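#structure-requests
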Amino acid sequence: MNKFRKISVIIIVFEIVLIAAVNLFMLRSIEDDETFYKVEASRIIKEIESGTSYDSIDLDKYPAITRVTIFDPDEKVNSDYLVLKDKNAGAIYRIEYQRNSFNKTLFITVNAGLGIVLLFTVFCLIYISNNLIKPFTSFTDLPYQLSRGNLTVPVKENKNRFFGRFLWGMDMLRENLEEQKEEELRLMKENKTLILSISHDIKTPLSSIKLYSKALSTGLYDNDPDKKANAVNGIMHNADEIERYVGEIVKASNDNFLNLRVNVGEAYLSSVLNEISKYYKDKLAVIHTEFSIADYDDCVLHCDKDRLIEVIQNIIENAIKYGDGKRISISVSEEEDCRLIRVNNSGDKISESEIGHIFDSFYRGSNTAGKKGSGLGLYIARTLMRLMDGDIFIDQEGDGVSVVAVVRKA
């Protein structure tokens, strides 16, 4: 803000100095004009004193002089004039002249124009200060506070036409981050409670396994086949219990670690694909990857538009990362009450042994060596599609690899 004020003062001072310089130049021009007609009048008198008749003087040589006559005090004239005396003959002459009115008009016009420019500049600076600089300064600390986790203080409502939507978005971001933080804490608490509970529950079958194992290892049941069989069955039963508890832990971990949500509604297929085209057309052109979207019949889809765009983006990002970089295309087909959005990329096909795991969380195929990634892109895509009552699958018929998102029509 202080820097803007300094710049504003410099701009205003510069314009004031410019106005003063122009005025000085114009005033000097007017003074030079007055000196000019006096000089010409003096030259005429000298010409008369040298013997030239006043009525035979060539006025074309004197641009400022309009008329030379014998001075008659009773004569009325409308123009400006000087009264000069012929020192030799003693005659008095009226020398009429014209001022350069152009300079005066220009003086007024230029000053009016410069004044308007100065006022406009001041108005613009005040407007920028009140509507851009001050509002911007008031929330420059907001991203820093959000990054530090200060999520409890809401963003003040601001109807500023330039930043109102931005501040609304920042407040929505703050609320989402706050909700995610609360959800994360809740999940951490639930997971900790679950682990403590299961750990406690595991102790019982684990103790039983130890007792049975100790009895068998010491030969306690060697002479009693029935008890020995019961001990073996007890170990297997308790091992199954432990396996079940471990399965619960794994399931809870897979179900909760991303906490994905969708808001299912209706969206036009064209609005989804237009967003994809807008984002990837230039991006893929930069890396010289051919990108195309085949013609399709528009329809209304039963989906969360933002989440469906996210799914297609995840698929395309995978195609960019693991394809050969030559071509990525999107086509749409119809099957019963669904639309199949097919993203195809050129490159090597996926091995049959890997297709079954390609949508698993944290799974990365054999072609991922040296490439950054978390193994969650397609897992998230599948989870989101199923939450929208759709699905996703791999199709390797034809050239390259196709990932197909199945979306229900509204």
